[in-house]
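Sorry, explain these tokens?

***
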Amino acid sequence: MPIHCPTKIESLTTEGFGLFDYSLMGHIFASQNGIGRLADERIYQADVAQRLAAAGMATEIETPITLVHKTFAKELFLDLVVCQRAVYEFKTVSALSSNHVAQLLTYLYVLDLRRGKLVNFRSSLSNGLILVLIALLFARLEEYEIACWDWQEDRGRKIGTECCSVRDVLSGS
């Protein structure tokens, strides 16, 4: 199945993604702190992109991915691509679900990337974001790891790790 994406995104190592991600998470926290936790996803998307651009980081919002099979075409959109190195999926929901994880996994899978981050700006945790780092651990997806972090006052505390079969998540099992 041909996959078209106008942006070539570099696949970072775990350490490389961690360092890169750390360099921009302050902007994501500042966005939530400045706007609050009740705005629409596109408001955060535009605000974070503007903050990153002001800091000299190239950003793309709503980057299209087109999947084609014979006469069928499906277009997907990446919420945020930063410096052609990292994919971020933003949500504003009361709780993340396996569908949200599956959405980011789909993006990573079709782009042959190993890491991305799911950010929920509407976390019910007091003064915090729920961040899910998704790292695809094995070539072409058999297992992945989800690590959930509770961020309060810019200090992270790992609240859980779960390893699952990608087939289980994508099938909703």
